[in-house]
What we know:
Elements: E1 4-10, H1 15-26, E2 31-38, H2 46-51, E3 56-58, H3 67-80, E4 85-88, H4 97-102, E5 107-111, H5 123-130, E6 134-141, E7 151-158, H6 165-188, E8 192-194, E9 200-202, E10 205-206, E11 211-214
Parallel strand pairs: 1-2, 1-4, 2-3, 4-5, 7-11
Antiparallel strand pairs: 5-6, 6-7, 8-9, 9-10
Bound molecules: 5-O-phosphono-beta-D-ribofuranosylamine.
Amino acid sequence: MPQFRLVVLISGRGSNLQAILDVCQTGCLNAEVVAVISNRPDASGLQYAAAAGIPYQVIDHTGFADRVTFDQALAQCIGRYMPDLVLLAGFMRVLTPGFVAQFTGRLLNIHPSLLPAFPGLHTHQRALDAGVTQHGVSVHFVTPELDGGPVIAQSIVPVLPEDDEAQLAARVLVAEHQLYPVVVQWLVAGRLSLNAQQQPVLDGATLDEPVCFQQ
Ligand code: GRF
């Protein structure tokens, strides 16, 4: 059976990309990363693609007049690899509705907070400032609303009294590396989809709440 094809979009460090590559290699994920695309030429995560012998492309957003033309070039590049699924893994660009519409149900993002809490940037510091006792990570289908798509699964990370931003971020990152492959495998196995009402469906049941894991 042909492998499930993944394209991963990154902008920086690429540790989630590496986590996906690791599980593909061990055979725990029946999928293959067929390309990595970065909008930044200096994204250090491109080294993981190179080391794994995976084709990678840079589409530098600064060379485009606007979001629409960048997204057109990005969609064209992705299309050449004929992916079954596109993963945003630290991809720091807001995507246009036209782009998102081309990948409905086939575009996932990982976000370092328990959405809908703390969309956007600096989630760990904002969680500390807000005094929450539980923080974590969410994986969601992407819609045009930034970090606003239907959440599929979350992993809860307790906030410890002594936590600073770096300590909390490090523990959330461990949870990220575990959660993303789990959700991707649900899609690969045909267990997860997005219905016409934009709700995730897992094993035939509509998810009214995200599936929750505890660190
Ligand atoms: C992760 O925290 C991810 O949740 C967020 O951006 C960060 C990317 O980290 N969207 P990395 O590039 O995967 O190491």
